[in-house]
């Protein structure tokens, strides 16, 4: 059975001298009884859906069902192509990818929930962008997705990944933590460095609430996917520089869960708090539901 | 502590925007359509709780119609399900209702078929795209569709269950879960039998031949991808 803590995960990887992705693949084979090829091919299929969702809305004006969001990934792509950005083409392209998946999701397109539909932009954007920059193969990207999944299993076992339970820190926060760990292993970092990155990402979003306007997975969710992607990528550089998390991953996950549980229900996906109850949000909500009732 | 697999974390592959309000709704409607069987003419969707309040913004309505059309939760045609239903001359209506003390994402399907018969199915989308069917034609049941599921309606007489289980044994099919529901001794009973292995046409035919069986349905797990 898959280990229940980051500490044990590192110990197991060290003992067998393998990365997190390899440990995760072996455990999945053990759990399901499927052969290695089958398990890897299933992830390959996930990757192909991620490739599409993270690209499509950069080239097409994709508008959500409610009409609330859409068309912004195209704008970011233009900025990346023009070479005029402040933070560099790499970062803007990654942001465009994150937004693309989120826009595709809101427009009833096909995505991989990773770990949720609301946070579906982060992991593909981080892994695909890092892979492109580092000239990684398809196999390498698939391995990175296993790293992310392995880290996600530990989070799911000890905390929650649902916005309704733990706020956005649990949803986009988990996605970004998983993505950062995946990018670290892709860059040749150790399992410790991967979990340091995940811990640092969590610490930087601790307390982030879930406050969707009109209860829809659109505002502010899509832009939080951008923020999660940026955090995942920048934190990978932090961890690869040898910067450690002073608080270990397991304790950070515990803190995240505790904070989530302490959030009042208004700030956990009920659309009863945060930006969801600002005058503009309430006006938008009225417009959306009035329009769709006709 | 629950045991998670890799694809519980990265997955499911689905049509957005919401695993509970879109993917789960499509899955539930697909299972309801299979339970009804036959050619469907009209469906009334009675929406309860959060489904009643937010179904339009999440595309729950389109997902439900898509499921009735036998589409999978990851089918990109899901968003044009209304048009496809119109082409196939299937009528549908959404009614906001109160189904009492039940899960907030619950639907009652009233499915009218071409032969005039009506099947009623109630179920909930319980999170992450998973579902729970709770009522078929007024009979309480409980199954998730995650395993291959054999549903029978049979006369509640001694030996019926053993006849079914010996057919499964002969075909080397392992039973994972079995629940029998009945309204009273000797009356009609409903059985939901979940197995570890797929159930073939041959097994279905053998089960149908059992004298006390009135009706048998088989629901394959709705799973995307290569596994």
What does this structure look like?
- The complex is a heterodimer of chains A (294) and B (227).
- In chain A, helix 3 packs across helix 5, helix 6 runs parallel beside helix 9 and helix 9 packs antiparallel against helix 10 (191-205).
- The model of chain A has no long low-confidence stretch (mean pLDDT 96).
- Chain A has 294 residues and is an all-alpha fold.
- Chain A has a single domain (6-293), classed as 2-methylcitrate dehydratase PrpD, CATH 1.10.4100.
- Chain A contains 13 helices and one strand; from the N terminus they run αααααβαααααααα.
- The N and C termini of chain A lie far apart (53 Å).
- Chain A is globular.
- In chain B, strand 5 (118-127) and strand 6 (130-136) form a beta hairpin.
- The mean pLDDT of chain B is 92.
- In chain B, 28% of the residues lie in helices and 35% in strands.
- With 227 residues, chain B is α+β, with helices and mostly antiparallel strands.
- The longest helix of chain B has 18 residues, at 19-36.
- Chain B contains seven helices and eleven strands.
- Chain B folds into two domains: 14-137, 60s Ribosomal Protein L30, Chain: A; 149-219, 2-Layer Sandwich (Alpha-Beta Plaits).
- The relative contact order of chain B is 0.16.
- In chain B, strands 3-2-4-5-6-7 form a six-stranded mixed β-sheet.
- Chains A and B meet through helix 2, helix 3, helix 5, strand 1 and helix 7 of A and helix 1, strand 1 and helix 2 of B.
- Strand 1 (110-112) of chain A pairs antiparallel with strand 1 of chain B.
């Amino acid at each position: 059975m898959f280990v229940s803590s980051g500490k044990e995960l590192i110990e197991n990887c060290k003992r067998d001298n393998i990365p997190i992705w390899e440990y995760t693949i072996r455990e999945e084979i053990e759990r399901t009884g499927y052969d290695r090829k089958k398990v890897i091919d299933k992830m390959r299929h996930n990757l192909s859906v991620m490739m599409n969702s993270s690209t499509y809305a950069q080239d097409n004006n994709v508008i959500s069902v409610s009409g609330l969001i859409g068309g912004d990934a195209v704008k970011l792509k233009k900025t990346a192509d023009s070479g005029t950005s402040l933070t560099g083409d790499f970062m803007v392209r990654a942001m465009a990818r994150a937004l693309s998946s989120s826009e595709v999701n809101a427009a009833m397109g096909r995505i991989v929930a990773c770990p949720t539909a609301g946070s579906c932009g982060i992991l593909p954007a981080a892994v695909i962008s890092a892979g492109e920059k580092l000239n990684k193969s398809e196999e390498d990207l698939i391995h990175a997705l296993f790293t992310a999944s392995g880290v996600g299993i530990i989070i799911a076992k000890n905390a929650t990944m649902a916005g309704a339970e733990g706020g956005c820190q649990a949803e986009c926060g988990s996605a970004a933590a998983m993505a950062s760990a995946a990018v670290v292993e892709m860059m040749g970092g150790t399992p410790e460095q991967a979990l340091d990155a995940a811990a640092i990402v969590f610490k930087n979003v601790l307390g982030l609430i879930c406050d969707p306007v009109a209860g829809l997975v659109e505002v502010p969710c899509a832009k939080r996917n951008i923020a999660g992607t940026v955090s995942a990528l920048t934190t990978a550089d932090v961890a690869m520089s040898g910067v450690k998390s002073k608080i270990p991953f397991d304790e950070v996950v515990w803190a995240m869960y505790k904070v989530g549980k302490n959030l009042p229900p208004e700030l956990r996906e009920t659309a009863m708090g945060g930006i969801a109850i600002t005058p503009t949000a309430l006006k938008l909500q009225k417009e959306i539901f009035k329009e769709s009732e006709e | 502590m629950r045991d998670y697999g890799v694809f519980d974390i990265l997955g499911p592959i689905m049509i957005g925007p919401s695993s509970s309000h879109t993917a789960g709704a499509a899955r539930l409607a697909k299972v309801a359509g299979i339970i009804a069987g036959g050619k469907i003419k009209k469906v009334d969707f009675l929406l309860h709780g959060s489904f009643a309040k937010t179904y339009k913004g999440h595309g729950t309505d389109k997902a439900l119609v898509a499921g009735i059309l036998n589409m999978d939760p990851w089918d990109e045609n899901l968003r044009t399900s209304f048009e496809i239903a119109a082409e196939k001359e299937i009528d549908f209506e959404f009614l906001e209702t109160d189904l009492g003390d039940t899960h907030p994402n619950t639907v009652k399907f009233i499915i009218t078929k071409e032969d005039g018969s009506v099947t009623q199915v109630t179920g909930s989308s319980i999170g992450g795209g998973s579902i729970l069917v709770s009522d078929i034609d007024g009979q309480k049941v409980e199954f998730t569709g995650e395993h291959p599921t054999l549903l029978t309606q049979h006369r509640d007489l001694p030996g019926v269950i053993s006849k079914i289980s010996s057919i499964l044994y002969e075909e080397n099919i392992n039973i994972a879960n079995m629940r029998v529901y009945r309204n009273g001794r000797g009356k009609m009973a409903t059985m939901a039998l979940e197995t570890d292995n797929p159930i073939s046409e041959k097994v279905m035919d053998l089960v149908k031949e059992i004298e006390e069986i009135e009706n048998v349905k088989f629901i394959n797990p709705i799973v995307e991808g290569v596994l």
